[in-house]
Amino acid sequence: MAKTVALLAPVTPGELLWEEFLGPMGLSRYRLAKEIDVPAQRIGDIVNGKRAITADTDLRLCRFFGLSNGYWLRAQTAFEIEVAQRELAPVLKKIKPWASTAA
């Protein structure tokens, strides 16, 4: 009998922001928004998985949290790739890699 493996849902950058940064730091979404000079709605939407991280937001968050530029964009890209891989799995299995005929 084949084993079925349950996949965990990919972690959104918003979940990462909330679980690893805001929650442990006791920092509200509103306070973060004010500290990095963005609308509070933007942070709320990111945390709720309704908005993606942009370069603008990445730079602000990285500066605030003392991270290297691109940290949040890499998290966003990793999330999007994981989602796309799951959605496209049947299609990707059908695609044959190009084999070079040059010797």
Q: What labels describe this entry?
A:
mainly alpha; 103 residues; 434 Repressor (Amino-terminal Domain)
Summarize the structure.
The protein is built from 5 helices and no strands.
Shape: elongated
Following the backbone from N to C, one meets helices and strands in this order, namely: HHHHH
Main sheet attributes: strand count, strand direction, barrel closure: none
Radius of gyration from CA coordinates: 18 Å
Number of helices: 5
Report the top-level CATH class: Mainly Alpha
What's the helix and strand layout?
Elements: H1 13-25, H2 29-36, H3 40-47, H4 55-65, H5 71-94
Structure description:
The protein has helices at residues 13-25, 29-36, 40-47, 55-65, 71-94. It has 103 residues and is mainly alpha-helical. The protein has one domain (13-91): lambda repressor-like DNA-binding domains (434 Repressor (Amino-terminal Domain)). Helix 1 packs across helix 3 and helix 2 packs across helix 3. The N and C termini lie far apart (44 Å).
